[in-house]
Design a protein that fits this description.
The chain is α/β, with parallel strands linked by helices and 304 residues long. It has ten helices and twelve strands. The longest helix is centred in the first third of the chain and has 27 residues.
Length: 304
């Protein structure tokens, strides 16, 4: 088939249907009627010579041909943004769009960083996606964003990862929680109720790995997808938790939290800024990396 058979409008419609998983939601997002969307998808499928979507119960799913086309459309999008940035650079401008996806724990340092970046590049529009590690890895695999921030760059993907900031995980308790004085071991804590992040989060992955290595099992009373909810529930006395130090702010004691001294803790794993190795970074993405890497001093807030 020839590239001439596909218009960029048809590709945009295809990518929107693929992203939203529905013809009607894509029609709404694109301000088109649903039949108009279906006709465009049929036209592409006719040019390709294979169906792009298949029905799976009430949902639609990409076929193998659909996956290939989606990846190609994203690569075209990358090349176009790089071209647009190069033209802007030739004109002496620093314009464009930057998409960054980050794990939930990383959002606590971001305002400080973004403030500087936005002041320096006021004409770069930024789209941020905050989600847990599993979701960020999915986005990375699908090449949905320019850059990703996470602790455990996926080993199964060919990526470039540059560590830039320490993300210590600490054991916390309500300030007045009765525990023996002095340094503790995990064995002292196994009988106490724990509130932990959900499976699929980077935080939980680090904790589970540590438990596996140390041969301990915790009494997990609740698994939750929110750092803030866990922190606040610990402060109300519901139990202990293991969270990123960055979630606790400058003075945890003021919010009713105590950081415990536990052997083997904090668990240390730096955040990295990550992208697919084959990704052609746009100028805004490169500018963001240049800002990110030296801007942070590597020191999370200390003390309890
Ligand atoms: P999380 O990720 O927000 O999924 O816990 C933390 C991390 O990868 O550092």
């Amino acid at each position: 088939m020839s590239r001439r058979h596909l218009t960029s409008r048809q590709l945009e419609t295809f990518v929107t249907v693929a992203r939203l998983g529905s013809f009607s939601r894509a029609a709404e997002a694109l301000h088109l009627t649903q039949p108009a969307v279906s006709i465009q998808i049929r036209q592409i499928a006719d040019s390709v010579g294979l169906p792009l979507f298949e029905q799976s119960g009430r949902d639609i799913r990409l076929t193998a041909a659909g996956h290939e086309l989606l990846q190609t459309a994203r690569e075209l999008d990358d090349s176009w943004s790089r071209f647009a940035s190069a033209i802007d650079a030739l004109k002496g401008l620093r314009k464009g769009r930057l998409r960054v996806a980050l794990v939930t724990t990383a959002k606590y340092f971001l305002p400080r960083m973004l403030g500087n970046f936005c002041r320096r590049y006021p004409d770069i529009d930024i789209e941020l996606e905050v989600a847990n590690r599993a979701r960020i890895v999915e986005r990375l695999r699908a090449n949905e964003d320019d850059l990703y921030i996470m602790s455990f760059p996926p080993e199964e993907l060919d990526v470039v990862a540059r560590p830039f900031l320490d993300n210590p995980l600490v054991v916390i308790a309500p300030v007045d929680y009765p525990l023996p004085a002095g340094p503790l071991t995990l064995a002292d804590l196994v009988a106490h109720p724990f509130l932990l992040r959900e499976a699929g989060s980077g935080t939980r992955r680090a904790i589970d790995r540590h438990l596996l290595k140390s041969g301990h099992a915790l009494n997990v009373k609740l698994s939750l997808g929110s750092n803030e909810a866990i922190r606040d529930l610990v402060a109300t006395g519901m139990g202990l938790a293991i969270l990123s130090r960055h979630v606790l702010g400058e003075s945890p004691a003021q919010s009713g939290i105590r950081i415990l001294e536990v052997e083997g803790f904090p668990l240390r794993q730096p955040w990295s800024v990550v992208h697919l190795r084959q990704k052609i970074l746009s100028l805004p993405a490169r500018a963001f990396m240049d800002e990110l890497l030296p801007a942070l001093d590597g020191a999370p807030p200390q003390g309890g």
